[in-house]
Amino acid sequence: MYNQWGRCQNDGNDCTINKFDDIKNTSRHAYSKNIKENLTGAIMNEFESIGQELLSLIEEWEPKLSALGNDVIIERRNSQNRTIKQIVGHMVDSASNNTHRIIHLQYQQSPLIFPDYANLGNNDRWIAIQNYQEEDWNSLVQLWKYANIHIVHVIGNINIEKLESVWISALDEEISLKAMVVDFPRHFKLHLNEINELINKV
């Protein structure tokens, strides 16, 4: 150890070695801190990009959806036999359920077994039970809009120390919080593409 004037106070010990050890320990700490800060920055940048992409798509698609005629949204069906109204309803369910997953995975014990709305036919049960086909279209579009704006807000406030928390799906897959967030835009765009195909369907 060195006193305030830089003199050795180790009584026979080699202060040069001790000082070198102090430097190494400080360097390790600084390196670990920098790695953590860099990883934190990279993750936050990735999540910010996800949020911005989702907000841009919401802004683009809200007027498109609102302008669709009744015949388009209730009569045309995709390969899963869903109408545009039902697809939009399913996207509301996705935003709602994923919001709950994100929250639960930040305070529940991992791995988490959470009810799975998306597999084993449950997604169609959700669509049928809520009867999206008869929902007021303007209300449904606004619900779609704000449910997804809210999940962007939730994603932006995730505790990054919880990103490796996992939930177990109905297919017995372990999915981390980070993987779920990163995959959300893919799922979102998949259904927008389905809607677009139905809009252009002859």
Structure in words:
The chain is mainly alpha-helical. The chain has a single domain (about 50-200), classed as Four Helix Bundle (Hemerythrin (Met), subunit A). It contains six helices and three strands. It has helices spanning about 15-65, 70-75, 85-105, 120-130, 135-155, 175-200, and strands at about 110-115, 165-170, 175. Strands 1-2-3 form a three-stranded mixed β-sheet. It starts with 14 loop residues before the first helix and ends with a helix. The relative contact order is 0.14. Residues about 1-10 have low confidence and may be disordered.
Low-confidence stretches: 1-8
- In N-to-C order, the SSE pattern is HHHEHHEEH
What is the distance, rounded to the nearest whole angstrom, between the alpha carbons of the first and last residues?
83 Å
Query: How would you sum up the major sheet?
Result: 3 strands, mixed
Any idea what the shape is? globular
Global Rg: 25 Å
Structural class: mainly alpha
Fraction of helical residues:
55-70%
* Major sheet strand order: 1-2-3
What's the domain count? 1
**DSSP summary, beta strand count:** 3
Q: State mean pLDDT (0 to 100 scale).
A: 85
CATH topology: Four Helix Bundle (Hemerythrin (Met), subunit A)
Put simply, the count of helices is 6
CATH architecture designation: Up-down Bundle
